[in-house]
Amino acid sequence: MLTPRSEPGPYRVDAGFYTGMPAGLPAGLEPGVGAGVTRECGCLFAYGARLAVAGTTESSQAFTTSDVDLRLRATGSLHHSIGRGELSLRLGAGVNVVYEDRVRNGGDRAGLTGDALETRALAALPAADLEGVLALHLIGPWLVIASGGPTADILNGALHGGFVAELAIGWQP
User: Fold this and answer.
1) Contact at 8 Å (CB) between 69 and 98?
2) Parallel, antiparallel, or unpaired: how do β-strands 85-104 and 11-20 relate?
3) Alpha carbons 54 and 146: distance in angstroms, whole number
4) Structural domain boundaries of the chain?
């Protein structure tokens, strides 16, 4: 039988496995890692910051493209505790820093060099996420946290949407 949990402190740190739609490439899911820190205000509101790093490689007949996304967010959330669990709705706003490396397939055999063979790009895209979060206090200050929801960024002047999810272990002393 589980013992009732003691009242946790206002700070929570978590880290875990992240997946989401790439900001720069039009298809696929990119695996990665994510982490965050949250401060609860003692009411229904909490705020914090999140970071995720993920990458993927896609290939076509002409190119092999590698994409690495660094997602930085400031967050605000509404949360409600239910026994040992907690439900939250978290809104994050920030930037996706995207690094893309594109190599022309077979270009080295054809004698291509420089930009004819490989191009690199770095871009910062404004972005936002809206996630549902479920946290369960396991033992002492340790939690398991699952989150997911839609994300959007602005790429080349157009709105680009997708989905993000994370499964993490948290610590809230």
Assistant:
1) yes
2) unpaired
3) 17
4) 11-171
Buried (b) or exposed (e) across 100-127, using 16+ Cβ within 10 A? bebbbeeeeeeeeeeeeebeeeeeebeb
Query: At residue 4, does pLDDT exceed 90?
Result: no
Binned at pLDDT 50, 70 and 90, residue 75 comes out as: very high
Q: What are the pLDDT digits (tens) for 81-133?
A: 898 999 999 999 999 999 988 887 776 666 666 666 778 889 999 999 999 99
Q: Would you call 26 helix, strand, or coil by DSSP?
A: coil
Are residues 97 and 126 in contact, defined by beta-carbon separation less than 8 angstroms? Answer: no
CATH of domain 11-171: 2.40.160.20
Strands (E), the chain: 11-20, 30-40, 45-59, 63-82, 85-104, 118-137, 142-155, 158-171
